[in-house]
Amino acid sequence: MDMEKKYEEVKEILKKENQEQLLIRYNKLNELQKEELLNQILKIDFKQMNKLYEGTKTKKDFKDTKVEPLEYIDKQKITEEKRKQYEQEGIKILKEGKYAVVTMAGGQGTRLGHTGPKGTFELEIGNGQKKPLFTLLSNTIKEANEKYNVHIPWYIMTSTENNCQTVNFFKRHNYFNMGENNIIFFKQNEIPMVDENGKILVNEEGLVKEAADGHGGIFEALRKEGILEDMKKRGIEWIFIAGVDNVLAKMIDPLLNGIAIEKKCLAAGKSVVKSNPKERVGVFCKKNNKPSVIEYTEITDEMAEKVDENGELLYGESHILCNLFNIKAVEEITKNTLPYHMAFKKAKYIDSNGVIVVPNEPNAYKFEAFLFDAFETLDNMAIMRVKREEEFAPVKNAEGVDSPETASKLYIDYIKNRK
What is the DSSP letter of 279? Predict the structure, then answer.
């Protein structure tokens, strides 16, 4: 289709959908940008966008949801005999080449004051040394490769914004000597942002303003980008998924794998116990008899403070975004789209008069899918409680909680204790 025809088709669609503002800067764009904008618009599912916008007007109601605690295994209380049994099962999977690691790395390091992909942010690791997050994670995989004499494939989910920079970073670092064929990049999906009146925003370049569709978008991206097919060709059966910002993520853990196999679960997750009942974290639970995560905004004070006969919190297992899935579970999850959650954010955009708007307060809706909503498609999942200081050191905020300072200390202490 030539550009003129495409433009006329888009104009008709936008008129029908009452979204004509999307072409406000069209005449100021160069030919490549014009084509990009038209293609962006043709890809928009306006029916879905209208539905998402309507959803911003209603509050989620959980009164008919039956919420119960979800059983877990405390890693520290596993007997030596059981540990060996679990680990043997997990090691077998690794040695047979049936295991892969997926790192979600679509974000930028803006909140950390870093220019570039978050995975390229350098963390202090002691003795005046600094290493990028990607380097620290690669070390974990390389150790396992050496230990089990395998080549674990590493799939890295990037975004449109940071894909080129991420790929170039790995090229410059010679793919950490892991082999170019063993590191595979794929892009996260994006979804348009809308204002308080349901109008899709135009970004500063004059294109559709889009935002990454949340960590729950991982499943659709695995399917759409051909990653699931690649995994099947390689004989992968188990996939570990975690974020790029947890420098202590134990991405290759035969123990967790063995527990999942023993319990006949197609998914497993790691938890750390809440530091206090009011900690702002999502916790594992059962919703209507299905495994799930209840967010801190959903849980009542009474539930948050409830304890069992041993005085432990009934809802105390924090979800730390370290999850293991059998490929069969992932295929099942990708048959349906996960629900989107709304976040009200500050967004710079070009209004219908062509003026750049720089807000001082939230003015637009961003829509994200959450990975843990996928748990509800499963009959059960295995949860293993681990120590925070051994497996959870996130780098999220510039300072304070979950900052480079706290993550650096946790990492340095962990390395010291391993020696």
Answer: -
